[in-house]
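worker-03 picked up job from queue 'complexes'. Input manifest follows; four sequence lines, order preserved.
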Amino acid sequence: MELTHLDQIKEILETGELRRIEFEKTEDIEIINLFQGIYGVAYAWYAAGCRTLDDIRNKKAGIKVSEVQEIGLQHYDDINTRMPREEAHEIFVAIKETALSLDPKLFIEIMGSYRRGKSTCGDIDILITRSTEDGKTHEGILPTLLNMLQTMGIIHEHLSLPDLSVDPLEAVYRGLCVRPLREGEGPESKRLRRRIDFLTVPWINRGAALIYYTGDDIFNRSLRLKANKMGYSLNQKGLSAGVVRSPTRYTVKLCDGHMIASETEEEIFRILGVYSAAFHQVSADYECSRPSKVCLGKNLTNGYGPSKWSMLCLPVYPHGLLALGLRKLGAPATPQGRVKAIQAPSLNIVYTLPTLYKR
DNA sequence: CGGCAGTACTG
DNA sequence: CAGTAC
DNA sequence: GCCG
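worker-03 finished. Artifact:
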């Protein structure tokens, strides 16, 4: 008798949760993961024959290394060490204070793994926007803020600067920072470089932006897939209805539809039918309404089968979808993952297991 | 057998 | 366009 | 790899 998905899910939930990283322990994926620790790095480096960071430093096989990637190499260990939650907090507090000194009406929020309540953070994601009720906006704030933070010694190397020419309210900055000095601490004390992203969005898009940048990636993909199945489309700007897709090519949108929710996370989650008890909680509990990563385990392969997709993991979501993390294979392959989501009515059984709510 | 999230940016 | 970041 |  074949095991059903549900049998396997129950077994994993009962025997303990695994991380999807467990499924990535093949040599090529490990090396590609190593190279992806450098901002903007290409899978092409692996394809070109590079296998170590020194191969990259020595420009083996005639590969090109951009200025930004040199920064990534220089600070490789710093950038790829997760920071304690407390350190992310110190950096965020300093940035928020600085920003509010420019305009006390700015909306400044930290997103990413910090907002998901994680005890360590791989980077810092900061959202900046501003209520428009007094007719003003956050236009022009980001460059000024970045200059101040640089003077304060918080922001260091730039990886990508904001392009304000398209929409001055929508900008992205990526760079490296260090935490502010603590009380009585001299400038000689060692502080690791940390990855930091700033993004600004129009005030009305803040809810959708919060969902997207709070993540994680698999959660977003499953949520978007659910939106599609319900006839909507979700992106970092908002939830749209009336999207018409080509019957032959599903991904081709014939009609963009119209925005029905974007200002708050709650309205978007509510329309999508996502359990939202956590909205009454503080950020550290946010993760509890979010996916619990589990794997189907040894019964499923991560091997390179004849298919161009290889299974990595199976997160379980509170909104009633399972998603299989898949990796696209084949040459020229991209290591960017894909998600397969399955509508699973029986998932209600999973919800009741305490695993989903432990932290 | 098609589909697997959606968008922005780079070369 | 392919590749990559989020 | 697996679902519709």
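worker-03 released lock.
The domain at 5-74 of chain A is CATH 1.10.150 (DNA polymerase; domain 1).
Chain A has four domains: 5-74, 83-180+190-201, 215-273, 292-352.
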